[in-house]
Structure of ATP-dependent dethiobiotin synthetase BioD:
Amino acid sequence: MTVQVVTGTGTEIGKTVVTAALAAAALAAGRSVAVLKPAQTGLRPGERGDADEVARLAGPVTAAELARFPDPLAPATAARRAGAAPVSPEEVADAAAKLATEHDLVLVEGAGGLLVRFDERGSTLAEAARLLAAPLLVVVPAALGTLNATALTAEAARARGLELTGTVIGGWPEQPGLAERCNTEDLTEAAGAPLLGALPWGAGSLSPKAFRAAAPKWLAPELYGRWDAAGFRETWAAG
């Protein structure tokens, strides 16, 4: 794994915290890590962005951001409203490829979901992933409704010739209901790819020290961790 693209089935579902957990686990395994945020929206200059948050939680990673737009909108819309040039998939691919020459792992965290528009041509994160020949890690919610969104994301990815590494639940509740517990089984079928981890709800509020110590427990060995899918499902068996 050299470049890993992190996307999700929507916004505010834990992509940044999952990216941080993957970075922390990789660092603990002795890998050098870079995190690239192609388009940061909803923040002004000087405010901490998603790449900065990954670095705060995970530790010594190289944090990079290609563009920032103040409105909390899709990158194409935010760029247009700011009167700024949008980010192109080619720019994303070039930046990630350069980082990959200097790091063992490059994590590219998208904005929103896979098909959110980057520019007026309709380019998306999927095009950047295709140019990089990089697999997708899809961050998903645990609750009711996740299966349809996960299946649609997986279908859109495969229609574009992209490989899925798997899915990670961005926020697992302390007291999961029937839907969440059943989804630990059904997400694999919906994605056509393995469930590779689950972060506890509120993981991003932990201290950096506690976050880094716990991150490998939340992710499967494929993601530098020691999380066990079978054991997790047994713990939360739907009954």
